[in-house]
Structure formats: structure tokens, C-alpha cells
Amino acid sequence: MKIDPATTIFGLIDVQLTFMPGGGLAVPDGDRIVPIINRVMPLFDHAFATQDWHKPNHHSFASAHPGRNPYETIELPYGTQTLWPDHAIAGTEEAMIHPDIDQTRIELIIRKGCRVTLDSYSAFFENDHVTATGLDGWLRQRGFRQVLLCGLATDFCVAWSAEDAARLGYDVTIIEDACRPIALPTTAGRTTMDEARDRLTALGVRFVTSAELVLAA
Asked: Considering just the CA atoms, what is the radius of gyration of the chain in Å?
């Protein structure tokens, strides 16, 4: 695929210590994406990043709901919410972007999930699908039309970001080996990753590998 440096931006979704092995919400093999991200970063002139940034008593935490356990689901005013282990507490070391990430091209960091009563997976909207993060306006004012995404986790924050970007009219690609899924079981032997892939491909989101990008450069 062709990357136009002037209109293409690389998005790093929640590449934070909290999602790495040993973190509060560890994604399996999450740390393995770091060297892949650094390998493709030089292909881009521009990048942005997101950080989950939660208050300690955030309503998406199982600990905020007595008797509930992580990975259960409940209904909140904005819809169905998966309950998570405590993670990405604002200001803590593990909420930081992984220190080995090359941040020289990152021009904007969006912090999301800051409201204690409202979770946020997408880089573009909180989970009520109405409250904007401001990223869309920034991208449009800068003239970006193509968005390539990586990060954690593929089936949650990366997928929701890609869905919103596609619906907002961006050309969207996910660098698949620069992501890792949580892959929670759903129904009939399927997982949240299977369902995310179906939704994304239906919206025209492409999946590529880092090797394909490097070869095309």
C-alpha cells in the first residue's frame, strides 16, 4: 500500500505498561509489539498516541462494583460494559507509554477514559459514542486522510478506534502484527477478536503486516 507522508498518520493505541506482562490488565505477548512498532515508525512523518487514563474508582473496574469479577459484563447508562481489573491509573508509572517506544514522531497524545462514570475504548469517542476526544478535529485540521493503527488490544481499543475512523471517512488500516488481542470467548467457539474482525472488514478496514509495509516503502 502507498503511504503519502503528507496525509497519512500512524496511530499508537494504548501502548502502555499497564497492558504489558506484569501490568494491571496484561494483554498476552503485549510487549512483543514494541520492536515491531519501532521498526515501522520511520515509514511515517507523523504519529499520534492514546493513553487510557483512569481515576482509581473508575466505573469500568470490577473493584468499583461489589460482588462483581473482572471480565463480567454489566449494563451502565451508556450500554454494556466489560468489567476490567484496575489498570491505567492516571499519573502512575504503569499508565505511561512503554519507555522503549520511539516517540520522536508522536505529535499528539490523547488521554481517554478520564471521566469516572464513562469508559473509553476508541481514540475518537468515549463509549457513549457521543462524547468526542477531539482527535477527529485535530486530524482534519492537519489534513490527514489515511490512518494506520497499532496497539493494544486489537479487539477492543484498536478495533473501536478503527471503526470510528472508518465511519468518520478515513482510510483505515490495522498493522496486525503490531497489535495483540485479548480474545475473550463469546459464543459458539468465537472470540471478541473474531467478532471485531468481522465488523472491521465490513467497514472496509484493511489488515496488513509490518513486513508488507516495509516491502512497499
From this structure: 16
Alpha-helix runs per DSSP H in 6-146: 33-40, 135-142
Q: How far is 101 from 191, CA to CA, in rounded Å?
A: 29
Cell output for 3 = 503511504
Listed residue (144, 165, 162, 156) closest to 208, CA to CA: 162
3-class SS of residue 97: strand
Catalytic residues: 14, 112, 157
For 77-108, what is each residue's pLDDT tens digit? Answer: 999 999 999 999 999 999 999 999 999 999 99
Domain boundaries, the chain: 8-216
Q: How do residues 102-141 score in pLDDT, each as one tens digit?
A: 999 999 999 999 999 999 999 999 999 999 999 999 999 9
CATH number of 8-216: 3.40.50.850
Task: State yes or no: cis peptide before 153, omega within 30 of 0.
Answer: yes
pTM of the model: 0.96
- Which residue do the cell numbers 512523518 mark? 45
